[in-house]
Amino acid sequence: MSSVANPQITPFDGLSVCLFCGSSDAAHADYLQAASDFGAAMAKQGWRLVYGGGGVGLMGASARAAHAEGGKVVGVMPAFLRSRERLFDDVETIVVDTMHERKILMYDESDAFVVAPGGVGTLEEVVELLSWKRLDLHGKPIIFLNINGFWETFFALMKHSVEEGMTPPSFLQAWDVCDTVDEAVALLAQGATRRPLQYDQR
Questions:
Q1: Is the pLDDT of residue 156 over 50?
Q2: Quick one: which H or E segment has residue 84?
Q3: Tell me: the pLDDT tens digits for 73-130?
Q4: DSSP 167-196
Q5: Which of 12, 32, 51, 111 has the largest CB neighbor count within 10 A?
Q6: Residue 79: how many CB atoms within 10 A of its CB?
Q7: Torsion over CA of 68, 145, 133 and 72, rounded to 10 degrees?
Q8: Angle between helices 29-45 and 57-68 (to 10 degrees)
């Protein structure tokens, strides 16, 4: 894990929360509403939303809602996705070259992570983030926004990995789970758990 130098992003002194989420406009209405509610809540709390820069799906819903409430938003978008994910130009957006740069910059700019429903891209983002935590490279909070039980099968896979001896049992405590936006916001407001680095156990 390495940092990406980026003098272009406007400094922000408050809590910055990265939202990983889907970019599909075909997502269930409950998921789109949750993303919108989360973006609005971020603004009302005075926090900054860090997200993937797109104007589609849950990404777009969260950013538009945060912006509409006067919140701080920064998007990070790889250049090759500008047309597919329809860059949301109403907020501060940084265009980078690669997916790796996008993820590193989102990580560097965030104090905590919320993972809403999403597809393979969202899964890839959070798995890398969890992998870094597994290797004791960071202790930043990770909260799964488990709307309608969306992430239950992923949690089952992680438990299976533990049962098969591939992952230490302690790793199942590396994230928090919230079933509603209100629960996630309350946890962040209380100070989402930044647990000591303890997961790289053989």
A1: yes
A2: none
A3: 999 988 887 656 566 678 899 999 998 999 999 999 999 999 999 999 999 999 999 9
A4: S-GGGGGSSEEESSHHHHHHHHHH----PP
A5: 51
A6: 11
A7: 10
A8: 30
